[in-house]
Amino acid sequence: MTGTFAHFDLRVGGGYRMVLRYDDPNTTAAKSGDGSDVVDVRFVEIVPGERIVQAVDFVADDPAFAGTMRLTWSIEPVAGGTRVEIRAEDVPSGISAEDHAAGLASSLANLAEWLG
Known about the structure:
There is one protein chain. This protein has 116 residues and is an alpha+beta fold. It has one helix at 97-115, and strands spanning 2-8, 15-21, 36-47, 51-59, 68-78, 81-89. Strands 1-2-3-4-5-6 form a 6-stranded antiparallel sheet, with no helix packed on it. It is globular, with a radius of gyration of 15 Å. It starts with a strand and ends with a helix.
């Protein structure tokens, strides 16, 4: 997948829309049509240097992806770097634990590469 931001506003009450496009546009896994997944995110809490809390809504007609997932990204300094912890609550039932773990691991790997 490749992700792009339609808009991004980093402030409490702001948010972003992210469009994730599958490498194979004909995949049946796409939830938003046109071979993509779309999420609308609101920033609920931002504590610089500590945590970001986000409310994530998936753009999909399938009720298995309805509802608002809460993602909390926490950071703390540790010897030799920074510890990043992600807590996900109210994950829609249509997202398997394995797929969700793979997506979060990919996000962390991309972050590490970008910071590297």
